[in-house]
Protein backbone atom coordinates (compact mmCIF):
# COMPACT_ATOMS: atom_id res chain seq x y z
CA UNK A 1 0.00 0.00 0.00
CA UNK A 2 1.38 3.36 -0.98
CA UNK A 3 1.26 6.14 1.61
CA UNK A 4 -0.02 9.43 0.21
CA UNK A 5 2.00 12.19 1.86
CA UNK A 6 -0.71 14.79 2.30
CA UNK A 7 1.10 18.11 2.69
CA UNK A 8 -2.19 19.98 2.94
CA UNK A 9 -3.20 18.11 6.12
CA UNK A 10 0.29 18.11 7.63
CA UNK A 11 0.61 21.85 7.02
CA UNK A 12 -2.76 22.40 8.69
CA UNK A 13 -1.53 20.48 11.75
CA UNK A 14 1.72 22.52 11.82
CA UNK A 15 -0.28 25.75 11.63
CA UNK A 16 -2.56 24.68 14.48
CA UNK A 17 0.46 23.91 16.67
CA UNK A 18 2.00 27.27 15.78
CA UNK A 19 -1.22 29.11 16.54
CA UNK A 20 -1.31 27.50 20.01
CA UNK A 21 2.31 28.49 20.62
CA UNK A 22 1.77 32.07 19.39
CA UNK A 23 -1.22 32.52 21.74
CA UNK A 24 1.15 32.10 24.70
CA UNK A 25 3.72 34.66 23.49
CA UNK A 26 3.81 38.14 25.07
CA UNK A 27 3.51 39.81 21.64
CA UNK A 28 2.59 38.66 18.15
CA UNK A 29 5.58 37.82 15.94
CA UNK A 30 5.87 40.05 12.88
CA UNK A 31 6.87 39.08 9.34
CA UNK A 32 7.87 41.75 6.81
CA UNK A 33 7.44 40.72 3.17
CA UNK A 34 8.92 42.74 0.31
CA UNK A 35 7.25 42.31 -3.08
CA UNK A 36 8.78 44.17 -5.99
CA UNK A 37 7.55 44.22 -9.59
CA UNK A 38 4.47 42.80 -11.27
CA UNK A 39 5.04 39.05 -11.43
CA UNK A 40 1.52 37.59 -11.07
CA UNK A 41 2.75 34.30 -9.55
CA UNK A 42 4.75 36.20 -6.90
CA UNK A 43 1.68 38.31 -6.07
CA UNK A 44 -0.33 35.11 -5.45
CA UNK A 45 2.44 33.56 -3.33
CA UNK A 46 2.68 36.70 -1.19
CA UNK A 47 -1.08 36.85 -0.73
CA UNK A 48 -1.06 33.21 0.42
CA UNK A 49 1.80 33.87 2.84
CA UNK A 50 0.02 36.93 4.26
CA UNK A 51 -3.22 35.01 4.75
CA UNK A 52 -1.49 32.03 6.38
CA UNK A 53 0.52 34.32 8.67
CA UNK A 54 -2.54 36.21 9.87
CA UNK A 55 -4.49 33.00 10.47
CA UNK A 56 -1.92 31.69 12.96
CA UNK A 57 -1.55 35.06 14.66
CA UNK A 58 1.60 36.34 12.96
CA UNK A 59 1.37 40.00 12.05
CA UNK A 60 2.34 40.60 8.44
CA UNK A 61 3.61 43.80 6.95
CA UNK A 62 3.68 43.77 3.15
CA UNK A 63 5.87 46.30 1.34
CA UNK A 64 4.79 46.44 -2.32
CA UNK A 65 6.63 48.38 -5.02
CA UNK A 66 6.13 48.44 -8.78
CA UNK A 67 9.73 49.60 -9.01
CA UNK A 68 12.37 50.55 -6.46
CA UNK A 69 16.07 51.36 -6.74
CA UNK A 70 18.73 49.06 -5.30
CA UNK A 71 19.71 51.72 -2.75
CA UNK A 72 16.16 52.39 -1.60
CA UNK A 73 15.54 48.67 -1.21
CA UNK A 74 18.76 48.27 0.79
CA UNK A 75 17.74 51.21 2.98
CA UNK A 76 14.35 49.60 3.68
CA UNK A 77 16.02 46.30 4.59
CA UNK A 78 18.38 48.11 6.98
CA UNK A 79 15.40 49.81 8.60
CA UNK A 80 13.62 46.45 9.05
CA UNK A 81 16.85 44.86 10.34
CA UNK A 82 16.98 47.36 13.19
CA UNK A 83 13.24 47.39 13.94
CA UNK A 84 12.84 45.27 17.09
CA UNK A 85 9.18 44.61 16.35
CA UNK A 86 10.09 42.85 13.06
CA UNK A 87 11.08 39.21 13.58
CA UNK A 88 11.31 37.93 10.02
CA UNK A 89 12.13 39.52 6.65
CA UNK A 90 11.34 37.91 3.32
CA UNK A 91 12.15 39.34 -0.11
CA UNK A 92 9.96 37.58 -2.65
CA UNK A 93 11.96 36.17 -5.56
CA UNK A 94 12.51 36.56 -8.44
CA UNK A 95 13.42 40.24 -8.29
CA UNK A 96 12.86 42.33 -11.43
CA UNK A 97 15.83 42.80 -13.77
CA UNK A 98 18.16 45.57 -12.64
CA UNK A 99 18.15 44.64 -8.95
CA UNK A 100 21.13 42.74 -7.55
CA UNK A 101 19.53 39.75 -5.83
CA UNK A 102 22.73 38.59 -4.13
CA UNK A 103 23.38 41.97 -2.54
CA UNK A 104 19.75 42.29 -1.44
CA UNK A 105 19.65 38.85 0.20
CA UNK A 106 22.98 39.45 1.94
CA UNK A 107 21.68 42.71 3.40
CA UNK A 108 19.06 40.88 5.48
CA UNK A 109 20.06 40.30 9.10
CA UNK A 110 20.76 36.50 9.14
CA UNK A 111 18.74 36.19 12.37
CA UNK A 112 15.67 37.58 10.57
CA UNK A 113 16.29 35.55 7.40
CA UNK A 114 13.16 33.37 7.55
CA UNK A 115 13.85 32.08 4.02
CA UNK A 116 17.24 30.67 5.05
CA UNK A 117 18.83 32.12 1.88
CA UNK A 118 21.52 34.25 3.55
CA UNK A 119 25.05 32.91 2.88
CA UNK A 120 25.77 32.87 6.64
CA UNK A 121 22.76 30.62 7.23
CA UNK A 122 23.59 28.38 4.25
CA UNK A 123 27.13 28.06 5.61
CA UNK A 124 25.88 27.26 9.11
CA UNK A 125 23.64 24.56 7.68
CA UNK A 126 26.67 23.07 5.96
CA UNK A 127 28.68 22.88 9.19
CA UNK A 128 25.74 21.47 11.13
CA UNK A 129 24.87 24.52 13.24
CA UNK A 130 21.36 25.42 14.23
CA UNK A 131 20.11 27.98 11.71
CA UNK A 132 17.02 29.09 9.78
CA UNK A 133 16.56 26.49 7.03
CA UNK A 134 14.99 27.19 3.62
CA UNK A 135 11.27 26.51 3.83
CA UNK A 136 10.79 24.06 0.96
CA UNK A 137 13.56 21.61 1.97
CA UNK A 138 12.50 21.90 5.61
CA UNK A 139 8.93 21.00 4.61
CA UNK A 140 10.19 18.10 2.48
CA UNK A 141 12.00 16.65 5.50
CA UNK A 142 8.79 16.74 7.56
CA UNK A 143 6.97 14.94 4.75
CA UNK A 144 9.70 12.30 4.49
CA UNK A 145 9.43 11.72 8.25
CA UNK A 146 5.74 10.98 7.85
CA UNK A 147 6.90 7.87 5.98
CA UNK A 148 10.07 7.01 7.90
CA UNK A 149 11.64 8.21 11.15
CA UNK A 150 15.24 7.03 10.83
CA UNK A 151 16.84 7.74 7.47
CA UNK A 152 20.28 6.41 8.40
CA UNK A 153 22.10 4.72 5.53
CA UNK A 154 19.40 5.34 2.93
CA UNK A 155 20.37 6.40 -0.59
CA UNK A 156 18.89 9.78 -1.41
CA UNK A 157 18.95 11.34 -4.86
CA UNK A 158 18.16 15.05 -5.18
CA UNK A 159 17.41 16.20 -8.73
CA UNK A 160 18.07 19.94 -8.97
CA UNK A 161 20.94 21.98 -7.54
CA UNK A 162 19.31 25.32 -6.73
CA UNK A 163 20.31 27.30 -3.65
CA UNK A 164 16.64 27.49 -2.66
CA UNK A 165 15.86 23.76 -2.79
CA UNK A 166 18.47 21.27 -4.03
CA UNK A 167 21.55 22.33 -2.09
CA UNK A 168 19.93 22.79 1.35
CA UNK A 169 17.89 19.61 0.75
CA UNK A 170 21.08 17.62 0.24
CA UNK A 171 22.54 19.05 3.45
CA UNK A 172 19.45 18.13 5.49
CA UNK A 173 19.50 14.56 4.17
CA UNK A 174 23.22 14.30 4.85
CA UNK A 175 22.65 15.55 8.40
CA UNK A 176 20.30 12.58 8.86
CA UNK A 177 22.94 10.13 7.66
CA UNK A 178 21.68 9.52 4.13
CA UNK A 179 24.10 8.83 1.31
CA UNK A 180 23.25 11.76 -0.92
CA UNK A 181 23.69 12.12 -4.67
CA UNK A 182 22.97 15.46 -6.31
CA UNK A 183 21.74 15.23 -9.86
CA UNK A 184 21.13 18.10 -12.29
CA UNK A 185 20.59 18.97 -15.93
CA UNK A 186 24.05 17.72 -16.93
CA UNK A 187 23.82 14.40 -15.05
CA UNK A 188 24.37 11.35 -17.22
CA UNK A 189 21.83 8.54 -17.21
CA UNK A 190 19.50 10.11 -14.68
CA UNK A 191 16.89 7.29 -14.73
CA UNK A 192 19.55 4.73 -13.79
CA UNK A 193 20.81 6.93 -10.94
CA UNK A 194 17.28 7.38 -9.62
CA UNK A 195 16.69 3.63 -9.57
CA UNK A 196 19.14 3.45 -6.62
CA UNK A 197 17.23 6.05 -4.59
CA UNK A 198 15.43 5.03 -1.40
CA UNK A 199 14.46 8.71 -1.23
CA UNK A 200 13.96 10.65 -4.45
CA UNK A 201 13.51 14.43 -4.44
CA UNK A 202 12.42 15.89 -7.78
CA UNK A 203 13.04 19.63 -8.20
CA UNK A 204 13.48 19.63 -11.96
CA UNK A 205 10.99 22.19 -13.23
CA UNK A 206 9.63 19.98 -16.02
CA UNK A 207 6.20 18.34 -15.84
CA UNK A 208 5.84 14.58 -15.28
CA UNK A 209 9.52 13.86 -15.97
CA UNK A 210 10.02 11.06 -13.42
CA UNK A 211 8.42 7.83 -14.62
CA UNK A 212 7.74 4.53 -12.86
CA UNK A 213 10.78 2.87 -14.42
CA UNK A 214 13.02 5.52 -12.74
CA UNK A 215 11.82 4.46 -9.30
CA UNK A 216 13.19 1.86 -6.92
CA UNK A 217 10.50 -0.39 -5.48
CA UNK A 218 9.21 1.14 -2.20
CA UNK A 219 11.02 4.44 -2.56
CA UNK A 220 9.86 7.65 -0.84
CA UNK A 221 9.20 10.17 -3.60
CA UNK A 222 8.95 13.91 -2.93
CA UNK A 223 7.80 16.11 -5.79
CA UNK A 224 8.84 19.76 -5.50
CA UNK A 225 7.67 20.70 -9.00
CA UNK A 226 4.67 22.91 -9.71
CA UNK A 227 3.89 23.06 -13.42
CA UNK A 228 0.79 24.34 -15.14
CA UNK A 229 -0.42 22.19 -18.01
CA UNK A 230 -2.15 23.56 -21.12
CA UNK A 231 -5.51 22.47 -19.69
CA UNK A 232 -4.86 24.78 -16.70
CA UNK A 233 -4.28 21.92 -14.23
CA UNK A 234 -1.26 21.79 -11.94
CA UNK A 235 1.13 18.86 -11.99
CA UNK A 236 4.50 18.00 -10.51
CA UNK A 237 7.83 16.88 -11.93
CA UNK A 238 6.86 13.28 -11.15
CA UNK A 239 4.33 11.39 -13.24
CA UNK A 240 2.17 10.69 -10.18
CA UNK A 241 -0.28 8.19 -11.72
CA UNK A 242 2.52 6.24 -13.37
CA UNK A 243 4.68 6.08 -10.21
CA UNK A 244 2.12 5.77 -7.40
CA UNK A 245 1.93 1.96 -7.06
CA UNK A 246 5.69 1.53 -7.02
CA UNK A 247 6.39 3.93 -4.13
CA UNK A 248 6.25 3.36 -0.39
CA UNK A 249 5.18 7.01 -0.11
CA UNK A 250 4.67 9.89 -2.53
CA UNK A 251 3.59 13.53 -2.39
CA UNK A 252 0.79 14.74 -4.67
CA UNK A 253 0.78 18.04 -6.60
CA UNK A 254 -1.07 20.15 -5.57
CA UNK A 255 -1.46 19.56 -1.80
CA UNK A 256 2.00 18.10 -1.31
CA UNK A 257 5.14 20.17 -0.81
CA UNK A 258 3.52 23.58 -1.57
CA UNK A 259 1.45 23.98 1.63
CA UNK A 260 4.41 22.78 3.71
CA UNK A 261 6.63 25.55 2.31
CA UNK A 262 4.26 28.18 3.70
CA UNK A 263 3.88 26.38 7.04
CA UNK A 264 7.66 26.29 7.41
CA UNK A 265 7.86 30.03 6.71
CA UNK A 266 5.51 30.56 9.65
CA UNK A 267 7.57 28.17 11.79
CA UNK A 268 10.79 30.01 10.87
CA UNK A 269 9.16 33.31 11.83
CA UNK A 270 8.16 31.98 15.24
CA UNK A 271 11.62 30.48 15.71
CA UNK A 272 13.22 33.84 14.80
CA UNK A 273 10.99 35.50 17.43
CA UNK A 274 11.86 32.89 20.07
CA UNK A 275 15.62 33.00 19.46
CA UNK A 276 15.81 36.75 20.20
N1 LIG B 1 10.03 32.57 -4.82
C1 LIG B 1 9.70 31.27 -5.03
N2 LIG B 1 9.85 30.56 -3.89
C2 LIG B 1 10.29 31.44 -2.96
C3 LIG B 1 10.62 31.30 -1.58
O1 LIG B 1 10.56 30.22 -0.98
N3 LIG B 1 11.02 32.44 -0.96
C4 LIG B 1 11.12 33.63 -1.60
N4 LIG B 1 11.54 34.68 -0.91
N5 LIG B 1 10.83 33.78 -2.88
C5 LIG B 1 10.42 32.70 -3.54
Summed up:
The chain is an alpha/beta fold. Helix content is about 40%, strand content about 15%.
Compounds present? guanine
Within CATH, the superfamily of the largest domain carries the name NAD(P)-binding Rossmann-like Domain
Tell me roughly what share of residues is in helical segments: 40-55%
Domain unit count: 2
Number of helices: 10
Low-confidence stretches: none
Let me know the number of strands: 11
- Helix and strand run: EHEHEHEHHHEHEHEEEEHEH
CATH architecture of the largest domain: 3-Layer(aba) Sandwich
Largest sheet: 6 strands, parallel
Q: What percentage of amino acids are in beta strands?
A: 15-25%
Average pLDDT metric: 98
Can you describe what's shown?
This protein has 276 residues and is of the alpha/beta class. It folds into 2 domains: 84 residues, Rossmann fold; 124 residues, Rossmann fold, CATH 3.40.50.720. The protein contains 10 helices and 11 strands. The strands form 3 sheets. Strands 1-11-8-7-5-6 form a 6-stranded parallel sheet. The chain has a 3-stranded parallel sheet with strand order 3-2-4, sandwiched between helices. A two-stranded antiparallel sheet has the order 9-10. Strand 9 and strand 10 form a beta hairpin. Helix 2 crosses helix 10 and helix 6 packs across helix 10. Guanine binds next to strand 4 and helix 6.
Amino acid sequence: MTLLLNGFELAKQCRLELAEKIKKLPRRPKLAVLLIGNDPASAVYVKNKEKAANEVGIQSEIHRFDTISQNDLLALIHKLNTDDTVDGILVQLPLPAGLDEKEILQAINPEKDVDGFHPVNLGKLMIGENTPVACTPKGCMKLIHQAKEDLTGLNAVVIGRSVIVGKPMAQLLLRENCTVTMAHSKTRNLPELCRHADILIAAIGKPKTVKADWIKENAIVIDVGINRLENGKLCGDVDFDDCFDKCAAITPVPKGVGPMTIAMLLENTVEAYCSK
